[in-house]
Specification:
It comes from Dipteronia sinensis. The protein is mainly alpha-helical. It has one domain. The chain contains eleven helices and five strands; from the N terminus they run βαααβββαααααααβα. Strand 3 and strand 4 form a beta hairpin.
Length: about 250
């Protein structure tokens, strides 16, 4: 392996690299301070800090996402048969091989990995008297903008309703990186009614696979032949990849 010339395995040859790029990033870290304010007002902030997402509130506020860094990193993707894994990203950076895998994702996000339940594959069934029924009349077409608006209004009917809504929003808007114009992910409303089950779910496994999928999909679309500017629509949690390489390089 020491004699491998990794440059021979670039997924996109240097001669066809698109130099300029633009990005739509839907991962909304800026929404976290608003979540803190609302939960502080209703006395549920400490409850959020105890959950599986509580540590995300400590994400450095000074972080800035660089579309250029991400684009130039993705251009340097390589695939070496028998070396690079199917569920990992490998890059040639400064003449050296660098990897982004579950390990790096876990180190950056602190999210747990494990065997996932199949709740997101099952037909959705609203929980009787759950927050989806009480606040949104079990509307299966509810959009994330509406969930945010109701959450920001406060005045929750029952204890921990604000906490539950906050967890749904963090999953959708931070970790899944969903466009606010999209529909809310329904199985989150079902899972959040059991806070213990919600916190024990292996969010790292789920979000990591989602992020890898969208990074690959976004790269193929952004760098299609005949394009002059690479344009990315980024979903999932691409911050993890950016932070991993900002720290090292």
């Amino acid at each position: 392996m020491e004699n491998i010339n990794y440059a021979d395995f670039l997924i996109k040859r240097r001669s066809s690299w698109i130099k300029k790029s633009t990005t739509n990033l839907y991962c909304n870290l800026n929404g976290l301070p608003d979540i803190v304010k609302v939960l502080q007002k209703v006395g549920e902030l400490q409850e959020l800090r105890k959950t599986c997402f509580g540590h995300l509130l400590g994400f450095p506020k000074e972080l800035t996402f660089s579309a250029g860094v991400l684009h130039n990193l993705l251009l340097r993707q390589i695939h070496v048969p028998g070396v690079t894994g199917a569920n990992e990203l490998h890059f040639l950076v400064g003449g050296k091989l660098a990897k982004f895998s579950q390990r790096e994702f876990c180190l950056v996000t602190g999210l747990k990995f494990g065997v996932m339940s199949d709740i997101f594959l099952k037909p959705y069934a609203a929980t009787k008297d759950g927050i989806h029924v009480r606040y949104f009349a079990n509307n299966e077409n509810i959009r994330l903008t509406d969930v945010w608006a109701r959450f920001m209004a406060g005045g929750f009917d029952q204890p921990k309703d604000g906490l539950k809504m906050a967890l749904v929003l963090i999953a959708n808007n931070v970790l899944f990186g969903q466009d606010l114009r999209r529909k809310a992910t329904l199985w989150l409303f079902q899972m959040v009614e059991d806070l213990e089950a919600f916190s024990s779910f292996p969010w790292g496994s789920y979000v990591y696979m989602m992020t890898i999928h969208y990074l690959r999909q976004g790269f193929r679309s952004a760098n299609a032949p005949l394009k002059h500017i690479a344009h990315y629509n980024l979903y999932g949690f691409p911050w993890a990849l950016e932070v991993r390489f900002q720290i090292l390089y």
